[in-house]
């Protein structure tokens, strides 16, 4: 049996979860439109793959303009953020237990 999952909305949505990992899609939304915050996952790495459009990954010390179909991994404990173009689709793969409880946020513009 083949299962399929589709997401055409904005922001981020986890589409599938299996045992210890989950896969979702990230699309343009206000929070991914500018570099105004950083987040850090204390228990898990997070992998990003640009499928369409353009995107930039930021950490405290660098930023990378993503290339399509290249896997970018952010190790656990690394502060990061992603910005995407309005036509972007980014696949996100992370541990299934990634949640608000083990994620910290730092706002850069006084929120």
Account of the protein in words:
The protein has 111 residues and is mainly β. It has a domain at 20-95: Jelly Rolls, CATH 2.60.120.10. It is built from no helices and 10 strands. The chain has strands spanning 11-18, 21-27, 37-41, 46-52, 55-59, 63-65, 71-74, 80-84, 89-95, 103-107. The chain has a 5-stranded antiparallel β-sheet, with no helix packed on it. The mean pLDDT is 94.
What are the SSEs and their pairings?
Layout: E1 11-18, E2 21-27, E3 37-41, E4 46-52, E5 55-59, E6 63-65, E7 71-74, E8 80-84, E9 89-95, E10 103-107
Antiparallel strand pairs: 1-2, 2-9, 3-10, 4-7, 4-9, 5-6, 5-8
CATH-defined architecture of the domain at 20-95: Sandwich
**Main beta sheet strand tally, sense and closure:** 5 strands, antiparallel
What is the overall pLDDT average? 94
CATH hierarchy class name of the domain at 20-95: Mainly Beta
Distance between the terminal alpha carbons, to the nearest Å? 46 Å
Helix content: under 10%
Strand content: over 45%
Radius of gyration: 14 Å
Under CATH, the homologous superfamily of the domain at 20-95 reads Jelly Rolls
What is the helix tally?
0
Shape: globular
User: What is the element string, with H for helices and E for strands?
Assistant: EEEEEEEEEE
- Side-by-side strand order of the widest sheet: 1-2-9-4-7
Query: What is the number of strand segments?
Result: 10
Structural class: mainly beta
Uncertain residue ranges? none
CATH topology of the domain at 20-95: Jelly Rolls
């Amino acid at each position: 049996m083949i299962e399929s999952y589709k997401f055409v909305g904005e922001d981020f949505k986890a589409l599938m979860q299996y045992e210890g990992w989950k896969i979702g899609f990230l699309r343009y939304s206000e929070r991914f439109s500018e570099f105004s915050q950083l987040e850090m996952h204390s228990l898990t790495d997070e992998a990003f793959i640009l499928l369409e459009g353009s995107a930039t990954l930021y950490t405290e010390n660098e930023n990378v303009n993503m290339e399509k179909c290249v896997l970018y991994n952010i190790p656990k404990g690394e502060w990061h953020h992603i910005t995407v173009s309005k036509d972007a689709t980014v696949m996100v793969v992370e541990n299934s237990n990634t949640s608000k409880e083990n994620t910290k946020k730092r706002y850069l513009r006084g929120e």
